[in-house]
Amino acid sequence: MNEANNKLDTNTFIKGLWKENPVFVQVLGMCPVLAVTNSATNGMAMGLATAFVLIMSSTLVSLLRNFIPKQVRIATFILIIATFVTVAEYLIQAISIDIHKALGAFISLIVVNCLILGRAEAFASKNSVGKSILDATGMGVGFTFALLCLGGVREILGTGTFFGIQILGASFEPWILMILPGGGFFTLGAWLLLFNYMKERKAAKMQEATA
Amino acid sequence: MNVLNKTLEIRTSPHLKSAVSTDQIMMHVVIALVPTTLFAIYAFGLAALLILSVTTFTAILTEHIYCRLNNKETTITDWSAAITGLLLGLTLPPALPLWMAALGSVASIALVKLLFGGLGYNIFNPALGGRAILQAAFPVAITTWHPAFLADRFSSIPSSSFAWPFTTGTYDAVAGATPLGNMKFNQVSTDVTDMAMGLTSGSVGETSAVLILLGGAYLVARNMMNWKIPVVIFITVAILSGIVNFFNPNTPTPMFMLLSGGMMLGAVFMATDMVSSPVTDRGIIAYSVIIGIMVTVIRLWGGLPEGMMYAVLMGNAVSPLLNRSLKSRVYGTGKKGGAK
């Protein structure tokens, strides 16, 4: 295993927020991204629940990385993740039964979110505990940020509110489409467009600077 | 090789090229739409004129800006954007707030046409795609109808037209129900002659069946439209609704089905879109039958009174599949003798 670089650098954390953002750059875990982001509250709750599971399971996978036999690692990861998803599900139920109802089956489906399994397989099982926690926190915050971006836009256009507070006037005509599944695809497409545009512009600037 | 290329044009068949170009076809489509458009303005007055100008202008502007942003030569000169805008305007209710009409026009051109690669690459008919987006976004506004032939239609504009962007329109006139809405929700039929002449309420350009057919006949005479598509759609709808009407006289008659709502406009000008319909003869028949079945099913048993838009979009969605599965037999191969 490659553990030569065990230095805790900020890049491990930062890359999840922007350069390797799980939603806008890696396009991972699309099922909850499209399904539950019809309001900012739901988006943030889903993001935080996923981040919790991600951080906890990454920590445990990293701690156990030298004990897990290679042949059964995927099954072990899933078992660890499922444990924390159960914890998250009961936590949400205890905090707010409304959010639990709104998110529905998608809380249990965090188990199969490829972002979490991807980080366990690609990062936590090969790096020290400290680095894994940093990486998982970065990815979790990036995921929550992305879901909040989607949920915010969809809630503002779809109902004229933000976190349930009326921000556009009473005569605002809601775009019902935005809180339907189709709106999720449109909004995600628009955000991806923005991210790719910014990336391209940055690359062009870098090229200009070196040339 | 280079020498050869300069003197000889080497290419696969077809070697005979038609002289008809895109902008010529589009010009003839515009001519075919003239009677429908003029009648729409006559029936709904300034409201129709405004909505048609807004959708057409916004469509052209969107296409021009998109081409500029991509450093391409502008494609508005082939008139296809203008036609998309005009067709979208003809499918909208006359008193729809103009900002919604403009939004639909942007969606038609940018989302449904240009993002798929522009003219010739779009899977769905752009005008209907834009209308479907509007229907999903503003289900109430797009089903609020405006009565036709109001006395003051050339001097006043419905106040809902000038609603500020992002706000709901206030409707002043008593909303007029369309024949389909009356049939579905009040079980009241409308006189067939009125519907054929366009004396009913409805979307801007869908009311006059006769004038739409006239425009279609002009395009067929110019050999710029496949007459099989509307004919097969009409036959399918007539047979299906005839059977249902025979067993249950409360359902609309075949004549009512053909003359009401967007049936004529959809079958003649939307389903026949050369880009989003299949290319083979068998494919075209299957495509038209699918549209006919879908529109009858949605109208008779669906929640919405009108189903032409979704039926045509569904036909568009399956046409790549039809192109692949219903290929014409290449001469000299296959079952009928020929080389084995």
State the order of secondary-structure elements of chain B, H for helix, E for strand.
HHHHHHHHHHHHHH
Q: Tell me the helix content of chain B.
A: 55-70%
Q: Which range does the strand content of chain A fall in? A: under 5%
User: What proportion of the residues of chain A is helical, as a percent range?
Assistant: 55-70%
Query: Taking Cα atoms only, what radius of gyration of chain A do you get, to the nearest Å?
Result: 19 Å
Proper CATH architecture of chain B: Orthogonal Bundle
CATH class of chain B: Mainly Alpha
Strand order of the largest sheet of chain A: 1-2
Share of β-strand residues of chain B: under 5%
- Shape field of chain B: globular
Number of helices of chain B: 14
Helix count of chain A equals 9
CATH topology of chain B: Ammonium transporter fold
Largest sheet of chain B: none
| Strand segment tally of chain A | 2
Task: Write up this protein.
The complex is a heterodimer of chains A (211) and B (340). Chain A is mainly alpha-helical and 211 residues long. Chain A is built from nine helices and two strands. Chain A has helices spanning 10-17, 30-35, 40-63, 73-95, 97-103, 114-122, 129-159, 176-179, 181-210; strands at 161-162, 165-166. In chain A, strands 1-2 form a two-stranded antiparallel ribbon. Chain A is flat, with a radius of gyration of 19 Å. Chain A starts with 9 loop residues before the first helix and ends with a helix. The relative contact order of chain A is 0.18. The model of chain A has no long low-confidence stretch (mean pLDDT 88). Chain B has helices spanning 2-7, 22-44, 46-69, 80-90, 98-113, 126-137, 179-186, 192-197, 209-221, 228-247, 254-259, 263-270, 281-301, 308-325. Helix content of chain B is 56%, strand content 0%. Chain B has a single domain, classed as Ammonium transporter fold. Chain B has 340 residues and is mainly alpha-helical. Chain A binds chain B through residues 168-169, 171-173, 175-178, 180, 182, 186, and chain B through 97, 100, 111, 133, 136-139, 141, 163-164, 166-169.
